[in-house]
Amino acid sequence: MISKYPTQKLLMKLQSFQVVTSIFILLPIIPLIIGDLNSDRQSLLDFASAVPHIRKLNWNSNISVCSSWVGITCNDDKTRVIAIRLPGVGLSGPIPANSIGNLDALRVLSLRSNYLYGNLPSDITSIPSLQSLYLQHNNFSGEIPTSLSAQLNVLDLSFNSFSGNIPPTIKNLLRLTVLRLQFNLFTGAIPDLNLPRLKLLNLSYNMLNGSIPYSLGKFPISSFTGNSILCDNKKFGTSAIIAIAIGVSSILLLLVLVFFFCCLKKKNGGGGSLLKGKAANGGRSKKPEDFGSGVQEAEKNKLVFFGKCSYNFDLEDLLRASAEVLGKGSYGTAYKAVLDEGVMVVVKRLREVVVGKREFEQQMEDVGRVGQHPNVLPLRAYYYSKDEKLLVCDYIPTGSLSALLHGNRGIGRNPLDWDSRLKISLGTARGIAHIHSEGGVKFTHGNVKSSNVLLTQDHNACVSDYGLTPLTNFLATPSRGPGYRAPEVSETRKVTQKSDVYSFGVLLLEMLTGKAPLKSTGHDDPVDLPRWVRSVVREEWTAEVFDPELMSHQNVEEEMVQMLQIALACVAKVPDMRPNMSEVVRMIEDIRQSELDNRPSSEDYKSSVNTP
Ligand SMILES: *[C@@H]1O[C@H](CO)[C@@H](O)[C@H](O)[C@H]1NC(C)=O
Ligand SMILES: *[C@@H]1O[C@H](CO)[C@@H](O)[C@H](O)[C@H]1NC(C)=O
Ligand SMILES: *[C@@H]1O[C@H](CO)[C@@H](O)[C@H](O)[C@H]1NC(C)=O
Ligand SMILES: *[C@@H]1O[C@H](CO)[C@@H](O)[C@H](O)[C@H]1NC(C)=O
User: Fold this and answer.
1) Of 185, 203, 231, at which residue does a domain stop?
2) What residue numbers bound the domain in which 339 lies?
3) Nearest residue to 326 (alpha-carbon basis) of 375, 399, 271, 383
4) Is the CB of 210 under 6 A from ligand 3?
5) Which residue has the higher pLDDT, 386 or 192?
6) Could you tell me if residue 324 is inside a domain?
7) Is residue 21 lining ligand 4, measured as CB closer than 6 Å?
8) Cα-to-centroid distance, 522 and ligand 4 (Å)
9) Phi and psi of 524, rounded to 5°?
10) Residue ranges around ligand 1 (CB below 6 Å)
11) Of 158, 256, 290, 303, which has the fewest Cβ atoms less than 10 A away?
């Protein structure tokens, strides 16, 4: 330490000399204003008035920048704008200098998939706090400014018309993890980027020449294709191809083995466990598993059907059907019943029902009424007697969101991709919003969780198990519905539409992180998902919260961040701070909208780039 001292001192001197000179150089350029929310608002308005856009932005000075402007995120104390996300809103034209570049607290700027062109103003790339810059799929041209924020973590300028050299100042971006420059017109040599954190590099389809610098040798050949790069390209290529071939064939072999073993297992293990508790002659069965054991002889025809139900079976058929226990839910046990002719239904046997017949019937009417929506699992029929309460609904074979998210992670698993997760989230939100609007202000789902979101083959979500809390003493037991229950519910013992919103927020977090809200492994210190996510996000490790299975997809990071913001709004501790369900639907639709806008335009663009 001591022997190094003189050198360090010299270094410090040199650095301070540099700092002093750069201050002198920069002084006349930096406007001497200290930014605040007013100046941020003005800069945004300047931008919006200078750049035409197809989708209307609701930016006007009447409403709060921080809570209502589309695409704008502020810091916690709402004093500065820290993120702008306007993907696919049809912005067209050049970005004027002294507009966005004046937002000197900005950390994230996403203007991807618009029609922006012209030079990229250097006051944007040099915003000192800027961490992520997403400008892919526009038509910017000219050179990239050489002054780049030292905080940059993600730089995506792909699918534009940038030209000139890749600026050597990129070498100084020690925090850079993602650099995407593919499909531009860059020329010259690839700079020697010895960046410790760089995980993703794509320079493909430019006009670069020279050789791949040694420091970038660890990146795959697909990071560099479509350039005129010389040198040991060929050797690199052949060895890569051999490696890929070996990899692919071993994966195939593994898959064949896994498949083989699965088949073997099924053959050996199937059959026996399937048909459990066949309720023979009339349902007075002794087996405790049977759902019909409380049905009185005289009441056998009292199955109440809803609407224009296409089922033609009666209670007797139901009791005669072979039944399989599907699981013990929050309100009782669920069975799969296979009727004659192969019709399958789910029968739920409610336990601990605390209301009388009239109240029960009234609630069932409401449940039956709200069930008429593509994202809500309809109640088909019910049965009520003193000793037995049964509900009948459709059987959805594909399974639940919970099973798809958490079931058998590992080899052979087909992870749920982002598009599917987005679609499921939107469907679920629409289902709950329908339940809220159709049932009236007092009507709640009451038990929103991932195992109550059933999925069809093409990932249409269907919410189930709704409207049952008023019938049972479900809320009296704090241990039930773990992880999803809003903090106020434990005290008030009352679910509200806002507590449904909270539970839905937890479900979104579960979908984003891939983590179960509470692992019931018997440990007494389970993870509270909202608290964990908040703590990670506060430390600005946002990317760390996402499910690793999602991280390989391109262009979805900010959509995930947008969804994360919606989720965090839903799990606000104070119920009044949470959005209502129809607002949540609109916010999720906004993500989807920008995604839909994005698709065709990026495809058009690709083809226009490819054709000479
Ligand atoms: C602001 O609000 C006033 C009245 O509340 C309205 O007349 C005006 O049009 C609003 N301005 C904008 C830009 O929306
Ligand atoms: C992109 O901009 C260049 C000029 O900078 C122009 O020649 C080209 O036609 C534009 N491409 C598209 C798809 O608009
Ligand atoms: C790379 O291209 C530039 C022009 O863009 C040319 O001046 C240079 O000589 C080329 N270098 C090599 C190694 O081909
Ligand atoms: C780079 O981009 C090209 C074109 O989008 C793509 O085909 C290639 O797989 C990408 N490579 C990497 C390493 O992401």
Assistant:
1) 231
2) 297-394
3) 399
4) yes
5) 192
6) yes
7) no
8) 45
9) -90, 0
10) 60, 62
11) 256
